[in-house]
Amino acid sequence: MAEANWYVVHTYSGYEKKVKANIEKTIENRHLEDEILEVRVPMQDVVEVKNGAKKNVQKKLFPGYVLINMVMNDDTWYVVRNTRGVTGFVGPGSKPVPLTEAEMKPLGIKIENVSVDFAEGDMIVVVAGAWKDTEGVVQRIDYNKHTVSINVEMFGRETPVEIGFAEVRKYE
Question: How far apart are CA 100 and CA 88, in angstroms?
Fold first, then answer.
């Protein structure tokens, strides 16, 4: 699978939250959860003074822009580009350019390098959550979402279940 990067999408002013909601709904409908990982409207806390009273409010950091963490391919490009309120990706022509690590740092977006002590094919045990005390073989590790997939027997058949890294440990 290709690597996910952060991209900037230009929207109509005032439509940032609607665009975010529309893209998230499309992700759910088209089952693109593994390709479009996160949609953000960067906000900042600002103190406004009106009539002598201080008030903390949240304002958009970049009005008219939405950040998307996604794997760029024809499907994801089409979904985002054809979302109501989106005018296009930021980049030369129609070619989207991913944000660099230096550009993402001031936005509070961190690239986390997570290491786990298990690999695909290893036996693990779930130590928390709904599947506590369940044992399974690691089928897939998703470092972007910080989850591991194991097969669990439900109703007499194997069913894949996604569990967070914090909820599992290697079987000893």
Answer: 19
